[in-house]
Amino acid sequence: MKRSNKMIVIFPLLAFTLLVSFLSYYFKHDNVSNTTILEGHHIIYSMNKKEILLPSIEEQHSIAQADIKDIKNRWESESLHPTQWGEQVTGVKNKLETNDHVIALTFDACGGPYGSGYDEKLIRYLRENNIPATLFINARWIKENRSVFLELSEDPLFYIENHGTEHLPLSINGGTAWGISGTKSVEEVIAEVMENQLLISEITGRKPSFFRSGTAYYDEVAVNIVNDLGLSVVNYNVLGDAGATFTSEQVKNSLLASQPGSIVLLHMNQPTSGTAEGIIEAIPILQQQGFEFVTLYDYSLSE
Ligand SMILES: [Zn+2]
Question: Which range is least confidently modeled, 56-65, 72-81, 138-147?
Fold first, then answer.
């Protein structure tokens, strides 16, 4: 090829490359809507929550490991005497801070031998009706439902949050709930939260901001440790399906008792329960009453 012909090819190529880099820079930086500081690191979310500018997973892990060690050493050096044990202890968020007619539906996926099902009918209904929801997912459920988990995490209707590693009540000294022995030390509290936290961020590229323990029980010291790990503890003020034991009529009635700013606790891992049917009956009625459905990210949370 002659020198002049080469230039004819090279210049447009160069110009095109410059244009592409400029546009990608411009769009990345123009759409920033929300900057979060988590564990001392800036994480920038774009308008579309899927485009996140994060350090690499390897970097995140080394950062997280160093921070976790510091937090563990600090809490272990204190003498700790929790005085509260239950679902509504100090520091647990139970509602949205608003009088707007909004409801946050939250669905747990608990995992384990009796809790690894997937309520496809429920999720299909939410998608078909464009109802957003916050999903609290346990590590054992993720391991049993990898591809469904990935698909849910990529759906902009849903946020994936942390429902623990072994689904344990969160205690610094072995508190028990519903016959299940909880974590027994600061170290076990941290492992219960962070093993699933790292699993979720490894698969999805996004770190959950909210934690709910298996059984939704805590002592107030454990809640403070979770806060130190960069997460807020979220329970509920409407018991939607009582661990997926309610009939569809009971689920419907629970949902209809929602107030402005309610957080409803439901399950997405028991497809034979009354949960999906109750929700399908209640949602149109709530919408007629003027309620809209939101996620835990749309409002501040309060106790
Ligand atoms: Zn659960």
Answer: 56-65
Question: What spacing in Å lies between the alpha carbon of 53 and ligand 1's midpoint?
Answer: 31
The answer to whether the beta carbons of residues 105 and 134 sit under 8 Å apart is: yes
Residue 93: closest CA among 294, 234, 261: 234
Of residues 238 and 64, more confidently modeled: 238
- CA 111 – ligand 1 centroid, Å: 7
Domain assignment of residue 16, yes or no = no
- Please check whether residue 135 is in contact with residue 178, taking contact to mean a CB–CB distance below 8 angstroms: no
**What is the CA(298)–ligand 1 centre distance, in A?**
23
User: How much distance in Å is there from the Cα of 6 to the middle of ligand 1?
Assistant: 65
Distance CA 183, CA 122 (A): 32
| Higher local confidence (pLDDT), 15 or 79 | 79
Q: What is the CATH number of the domain that holds 211?
A: 3.20.20.370
CA angle 233, 239, 244 (to 5 degrees): 105
- What is the extent of the structural domain holding 126? 42-302
SS3 of residue 281 by DSSP = helix
Please tell me the pTM assigned to this model. Answer: 0.81
Identify whether 25 is part of a domain: no
Q: Kindly provide the residue ranges of all beta strands, DSSP E only, lying in 67-220, ordered along the sequence.
A: 85-86, 95-96, 102-109, 133-137, 158-162, 176-177, 180-181, 210-211, 218-219
